[in-house]
Amino acid sequence: MNAPSLTEAASLPLREARQPSSKVAHFGPEEPLWLDAGRMLSPFQIAYETWGELNADKSNAIYVCHALTGDQYAASTNPVTGRPGWWSSIIGPGKPVDTNRYFIICANVIGSCMGSTGPASTDPATGLPYALNLPVLTIGDMVRAQAMLMDRLGIDQLFAVIGGSMGGMQCLQWTVAYPERVFCALPIAAGARHSSQNIAFHEVGRQAVMADPEWQGGRYIEGGVRPHKGLAVARMAAHVTYLSKAALQRKFGRNLQDREALGFGFEADFQIESYLRHQGSSFVDRFDANAYLYLTRAMDYFDIAADYGGRLADAFSRTKTRFCLVSFSSDWLFPTEESRAVVHALNAAAASVSFVEIETDRGHDSFLLDEPEFYAAMMGFLTSAAKARGLK
Amino acid sequence: MNAPSLTEAASLPLREARQPSSKVAHFGPEEPLWLDAGRMLSPFQIAYETWGELNADKSNAIYVCHALTGDQYAASTNPVTGRPGWWSSIIGPGKPVDTNRYFIICANVIGSCMGSTGPASTDPATGLPYALNLPVLTIGDMVRAQAMLMDRLGIDQLFAVIGGSMGGMQCLQWTVAYPERVFCALPIAAGARHSSQNIAFHEVGRQAVMADPEWQGGRYIEGGVRPHKGLAVARMAAHVTYLSKAALQRKFGRNLQDREALGFGFEADFQIESYLRHQGSSFVDRFDANAYLYLTRAMDYFDIAADYGGRLADAFSRTKTRFCLVSFSSDWLFPTEESRAVVHALNAAAASVSFVEIETDRGHDSFLLDEPEFYAAMMGFLTSAAKARGLK
């Protein structure tokens, strides 16, 4: 076995991928994870964080699902970036997801790079990083692993499952795969399947990563390199899709960056260019390129009706969960009509469902931003569900 | 001077860039092109095609402006791809741009790679390809060169200037820079400036090209290589923006490519993936990477009101041109509101203007597709303008 030699820049995320700062649940040979690919993953581990206290009858647990490039540090400082958690404005004492009231769990999805088993983890068969030898994973696999974590924590039924974007997909998957285990669900800025356009943008990103010669067929860790340039381009392309045309125009317009006039060159003349370049370069410092391939693939594969002959309502036929779907009016990645299609299917399945479209020009990323109406809707729904559940 | 050594795949487009199959107008040291960058280009050449006959008083000439990756072969077979011209359904006997009636000119824009001077042309100062030593060009520079070509052909006033996308930008620029030389104008699927989102997508493409190590700081021709992978990724990202979400869903949806079930790998599972990969790989066989950088930059720099204190109506204050603007309802790159902003400015300048929004789900690329309503609008406008101009 070659000892991986790493550049300084690569070492922090990779250390976190293997020895996370958070809690870790290990699943040994006796507890394999059966995958949709028809293979199994074993051993594997899940890195997770919790906030608040689990009550005596274990009825106040909320599972928070993270998005593509998110992690378990929803409300804790991220050890790689040193920045506050990505939902620290939503999770906390007195906040919409109230840590005084609920016990909140957030785990890094399998396939990612913040401590749960993913392509940077060691393949027991070779002693080397899995790279592309890790089976391709699905949203179903992620949620199956999360259910095993809930078993480990002794939680039979979650009071709520909440998540935006890829987190919203997991949230829907929870309600379909484990209808008895989810009292209420809040899928945000998501849909029942990944659209053709969304697959297209993900494919652009994957091709950008794989075009980088430092990707080395996925075996860059052993080579002591990382496909920084390709991953940065992938992130830049994706980032444009997270914001609305109107918000980009409002925030950046055609404003120039640190200059009085056009430079007549290929440096970043416009603020939007230097903003995007920054998004690309800061992303590669915290994320693993192969994990990006695996997680985009999992989203592309998501189509919750596929196992039900394409009839979405049938997927929810056994549901007893109370739903609240949230969309954002300027989200063109997961437009309101995709949430509405889920609402219609839930109606057809006679489920309890409410639906809120938040008016905002901030696009898909609104679920990560301070949107008072969104917070109010979330808090109202959880409070009412908590009453129905008999929580204090 | 090093003789450029080229791979087989690179040779056809490069030969065309230097010795085009079409007509060529050469402009020697006595006729430099003055550039917005404050520099001059000399010598330079313009490769162009014509169809139909110029009438005795030279009043029936129509100038067709091509889009980013278009060329002068609007209605002739493309010598590189062997395919029919990109507007062969629009230009021809009895077609909307009727070759029995009009004399039609289309020239490759400067900065491109089909025979007009661009980054692959030889820099007289070094004997090597210009690469990034070519000054950054603007839409204004392109149109100034086109006006010099009209001088050469002895055409004082064009009956019409027509173009879509980047061609629509040139069309607007013609009416502002040479108000007396354009009797009527048909800017299609364009706007008065490039939006922040559009700059963002172009920047993603440029970064993809420049991230490719075979780009070699732009000097790949001398190196005998070409940044195929980076340029293919750039094209894939751009191509997604040319189509609407609805059209992608209708055409490709989540259909699988040559397989019964998901492959659980990173090959092209979905038709949309293999379609995009094909778009990328066929593009690099016909286009020069540096030309892609220059032309995207020219579009980004386009802001017709900038020289008029941001007051778009002032840009048109001297206009006597009759305008017909065309937009497509599902075009999210140049949405209808951008054409409407031009219409409002023209109204404020008391210009003669009509405006048609074509209902279609086919997105920005609709201007290249068979859209009967679009053809009818174009033909109706030209026929009416021809009558006003006294053309037979």
From TrEMBL, chains A, B:
GO cellular component terms, semicolon-separated? cytoplasm
Has keyword RNA-binding? no
The AB hydrolase-1 domain sits at 61-369
Q: Which reaction does it catalyse?
A: L-homoserine + acetyl-CoA = O-acetyl-L-homoserine + CoA
Can you tell which superkingdom this protein's organism belongs to?
A: Bacteria
Give the Enzyme Commission number: 2.3.1.31
Specify where the region named Disordered lies, as residue ranges: 1-25
Example GO molecular function term? homoserine O-acetyltransferase activity
Places the protein is found: Cytoplasm
Record key words, sorted: Acyltransferase, Amino-acid biosynthesis, Cytoplasm, Methionine biosynthesis, Transferase
Q: Does the keyword Translocase apply?
A: no
Mention any Pfam family matching this sequence: Abhydrolase_1
GO terms under biological process: homoserine metabolic process; methionine biosynthetic process
Binding of substrate, residues:
R235, D365
Pathway(s) it belongs to: Amino-acid biosynthesis; L-methionine biosynthesis via de novo pathway; O-acetyl-L-homoserine from L-homoserine: step 1/1
Catalytic residues at S165 (nucleophile), D331, H364
Q: How does it assemble?
A: Homodimer.
The job of this chain, per UniProt, is described as: Transfers an acetyl group from acetyl-CoA to L-homoserine, forming acetyl-L-homoserine.
Family affiliation: Belongs to the AB hydrolase superfamily. MetX family.
Protein name per its UniProtKB record? Homoserine O-acetyltransferase
From which lineage does this chain's organism come?
Bacteria, Pseudomonadati, Pseudomonadota, Alphaproteobacteria, Hyphomicrobiales
